[in-house]
Specification:
The structure holds two protein chains of two kinds. By secondary structure, chain A is of the alpha/beta class. Helices cover 43% and strands 18% of the residues of chain A. In chain A, the strands form two sheets. In chain A, strands 3-2-1-4-5 form a five-stranded mixed sheet, sandwiched between helices. In chain A, strands 8-7-6-9-10 form a five-stranded mixed sheet, sandwiched between helices. In chain A, helix 5 crosses helix 6. Chain B is α/β, with parallel strands linked by helices. Chain B folds into two domains: 108 residues, 2-Layer Sandwich (Nucleotidyltransferase, domain 5); 69 residues, Nucleotidyltransferase, domain 5 (2-Layer Sandwich), CATH 3.30.420.200. Chain B has a five-stranded mixed sheet with strand order 3-2-1-4-5, sandwiched between helices. In chain B, strands 8-7-6-9 form a four-stranded mixed sheet. In chain B, a hairpin with a 2-residue loop joins strand 6 and strand 7. The longest helix of chain B is centred in the middle third of the chain and has 18 residues. The termini of chain B are far apart. The chains are: A alpha/beta, B alpha/beta. The interface between A and B is large, with 47 and 42 residues. Chain B: Pfam families: TsaD. Chain B: It is an enzyme of class 2 (transferase). Chain B: One of its GO terms (cellular component) is cytosol.
């Protein structure tokens, strides 16, 4: 095997169209040679959320140009890469098809192997690209689509310790914002309003606090926010700020409890790990208040808190390229060109289905 | 010029290789899949290449159906075509499914005007009129059945495609539309290279901006 491996990554599972070229040296150190992301925020903002058909339409018009740009910025031709990595699930099927088909065509035309990557694996392995983290570690993924606590044991070896039983945390932020008339996406808007609010004004529920299992739930909190807000409508600026602050405080306390238990379980399971770490990923990881909570929590439990830069926390193709590189480096077989896109694809195949039941199986 | 033609816009998944200089189809595959085009298409491309004894880098142009048709199907083909074009450094050309239907019909009825029309369901028809010489009379549109009936009457009454059955008083349900890759390949060969293939949906995404959800503000 050559000492330096290079992969082109493609990501189209939600509302970001992305392409990236990443290299990995013989010691396992990664270098991002280019990382291009086109956000569709504008296209979806009027709808207060991601519209799958609009997302798919935008992906197919933009992706090839982005790939070209990623290759140019990396000063790299397609024939110089060792493999193509494309997200093939979980996510919105219309977008996944665009990315995966493009990846298949590139792989066939260039004679390079194709790695069909699980989007969640991309998030799970990012901290090894940014911080050179060793296995095992804990990963908290908090985004608009996912809320999961995952034990990362190795490449392709994941154990889901907790997941949401209803809404994702990012979804709860978006719905709170929508209710209060704040702009989409809700995360940054709620955080901004919360900064001027009184977190003690509303006593909102802290879902599942005290439960030993490590799952999350946010739909009850969402309802409580609606009831509290409806009771005092019409809302003034300060009311909105107080609701946001109270909501964020409830979320912080929930995370504090849930993740705290996860850290303890990790300690008990891996007493020999001297430098345990918690990694955050996902758009919600950008929230400074929640980051602060997790940082303090980690310090208290003797964990290193690893928060990759924002552009690598939210959806991007560098993490997909990197997941491909990790698979390639440990000698995992590439995928056949008839590989299917999968809207649902749990990272941990043994994990019990908690949300998204039905004939298509567990969501993630 | 060697053209690789790809179609995933309807029930079929098709690939063909066409030699423009010899005006000959070198290899052709069509499977009536209904769904799963994204899994099958790349293998099918390898099959036509191997049957024709060619490598992919012999291909000098990609032709693809851009719709109207299944939204997901169109994107499957267009994404693959644009991927091949990027990797091979050759142009990709988009051909509408209505053009394919009209050209296929014209090969059996030379010199006659026709309206190519696809039953888009939900009371709509994707339609476009073509003159006797094969050139389009106007742009492709989505019409209700009555407007489609008038369009067909204005152009001599001949209709190519599944929407023809909507004009009949009664009768068997129309077969789904099929877009022969050999016809597509010839059209792609003759078409000018203008811009990258772009899906032609003729229908807006099914989404409404949300209003009235937020609580009142002071």
């Amino acid at each position: 095997m050559r000492s330096n491996l290079v992969i082109l990554g493609i990501e189209t599972s939600c509302d970001e169209t992305a392409a990236s070229v990443v290299a990995r040296d013989a010691e396992g150190r990664g270098t991002i040679l280019s990382n291009v992301v086109l956000s569709q925020l504008e296209e979806h903002s009027a709808y207060g959320g991601v519209v799958p058909e609009i997302a798919a339409r935008a992906h197919v018009e933009a992706l090839d140009t982005l790939i070209e740009q990623a290759l140019v910025e990396a000063d790299c031709r397609l024939k110089d890469v060792d493999a193509i990595a494309a997200t093939s699930g979980p996510g919105l099927i219309g977008g996944l098809i665009v990315g995966l088909m493009t990846g298949k065509a590139l792989a066939l035309a260039s004679g390079k192997p194709l790695y069909a990557i699980n989007h969640l694996e991309g998030h799970a392995l990012t901290a090894r690209l940014t911080d050179g983290l060793g296995f095992p570690y804990l990963m908290l993924l908090v985004s608009g689509g996912h809320t999961q606590l995952v034990l990362v044991r190795g490449v392709g070896d994941y154990e889901r310790w907790g997941t949401t039983i209803d809404d994702a945390l990012g979804e709860a932020f978006d719905k709170t914002a929508k209710l209060l008339g704040l702009p989409y996406p809700g995360g940054p808007a709620v955080e901004k309003a919360a900064a001027k609010g009184n977190p003690g004004r509303f006593n909102l529920p802290r879902p599942l606090v005290g439960e030993t299992r490590l799952d999350f739930s946010f739909s009850g909190l969402k309802t409580a926010v609606r009831q509290a807000a409806t009771a005092i409508a019409p809302l003034g600026e300060q009311d909105v700020a107080d609701i946001c602050a109270s909501f964020q405080h409830a979320v912080s306390r929930t995370l504090n409890d849930r993740i705290g238990r996860g850290l303890q379980r990790f300690r008990a399971l891996f007493p020999e790990v001297s430098d345990p770490a918690l990694v955050v990923a996902g758009g919600v990881a950008a929230n400074k208040a929640l980051r602060g909570t997790l940082d303090v929590l980690c310090t208290r439990h003797g964990f290193r808190f690893v928060a990759p830069p924002h552009v690598l926390c939210t959806d991007n193709a560098a993490m997909i390229a990197w997941a491909g590189l990790e698979r390639l480096a440990v000698g995992m077989e590439p995928d056949a060109l008839d590989v299917q896109p999968r809207s649902r694809w749990p990272l941990d195949s043994k994990a019990e289905t908690l949300v998204g039941h039905g004939r298509r199986g567990a969501k993630a | 010029m060697i053209v690789l033609a790809l179609d995933t816009a309807g029930v079929d998944c098709s690939a063909a290789l066409y030699d423009g200089a010899k005006n000959r189809i070198l290899a052709e595959r069509t499977e009536r899949l209904g769904k799963g085009h994204a899994e099958r298409l790349t293998d099918m491309v390898q099959e036509v290449l191997s049957e024709a004894g060619l490598a992919l880098d012999a291909v000098e142009r990609i032709g693809v159906t851009v719709g109207p048709g299944s939204f997901t199907g169109i994107r499957t083909g267009v994404a693959a075509a644009r991927g091949f074009a990027l990797a091979l450094g050759v142009p990709a050309v988009g051909i509408t499914t209505l053009e394919v239907l009209a050209a296929d019909w014209a090969s059996r009825h030379p010199g006659k005007p026709v309206v190519a029309a696809i039953d888009a369901k939900r009371g709509e028809v994707y339609a476009q009129a073509f003159a006797g010489d094969g050139s389009p009379v106007d742009a492709p549109v989505a019409l209700d059945v009555e407007a489609f009936r008038q369009l067909a009457a204005r152009h001599g009454g001949a209709v190519a495609g599944s929407a023809a059955s909507l004009l009949a008083a009664a009768g068997p349900e129309a077969e789904p539309d099929r877009f022969p890759p050999s016809v597509l390949a010839r059209l792609a060969h003759a078409a000018p290279v203008a811009h990258k293939p772009k899906p032609l949906y003729l229908r807006a995404p099914d989404a409404k901006p949300q209003a009235g959800f937020a609580l009142s503000r002071t």
